[in-house]
Design a protein that fits this description.
Spore Coat Polysaccharide Biosynthesis Protein SpsA, Chain A; elongated
Length: 319
Amino acid sequence: MPPAVTQNQPYLSVVIPVFNEEDNLVELHARLSVTLNASPWSWEVIYVDDGSKDASWELLCRIQGQDPHARLVRFNRNYGQHMAIFAGFEKVRGQVVVTLDADLQNPPEEVPKLVAKLEEGFDVVSGWRQERHDSVLRKIPTWLVAKVTSRVVGVQLKDYGCMLRAYRREVVDAMSASHESSSYIPALANLYASSVGEIPVAHAERAAGRSKYGILKLIKLNFDLMTGFSVLPIQMVSVLGVLIALVGLGFGLFLIIRRLVVGPEVEGVFTLFAILFVFVGLQILVVGLMGEYLGRIYREVRHRPRFVVRETRDSEAGS
């Protein structure tokens, strides 16, 4: 059983980033309220409006006016899902924190399952979308993220892309203290957690609106992940460079010997062009990786705020 808490210090905090989700918010809050009111925990929910252009903020204000459990944070523009979650982390008062998407693809009814698993002694519990209702173009990048993240962080999980996750407050505070300009929350949490659990959770089709994560954003997320948590990509490229240099040296010796034996010939020109294109492609890849690392360093040394909060709203009981 959770320890005794006051109304201003709930046991459970739910953080929900919101970006143009006007069609889902009313149902989301209704289902979340029914689920958590039936639980033994006192709770709060923090909605972070990530620069929505639709009526999401107006709906959130209406919800907050009717339910003292709701607290609101509004950005001045769109900063992305992870920055919205960090803003929510800075406002939480609970001892246990759960993150949840606003699109209803991760059902709010699954929140108690995560909290119960966390209370078994884990620092972080991640949801694993056992039956995903997404296209293959979404599943393949997510699978790749899970493989790369597991290798980089050293914690094997089946699904690093699921934002339905539960954290102990100590882990959340450690993540909030990491003032990086960009960071991948699931990987960062696993760096600070001593024990990580994973349980299957339900996944539904998006009922309204459209996904905010396209292929380009998923690719950017992979670059953030690789360059933000490890120098392994640079090390792999360095090893690959040595191997290519050795192969190139061997191929050069082969061409010299062939010229001495066979004599001058031009049939191998296209082969040389193909090899040259491979080398040029690898060089561009190296430059891109170096640029990604330098870009991260540049963003960090400027010490600019990760996001700007335009407005916050709390209920009278929780203010």
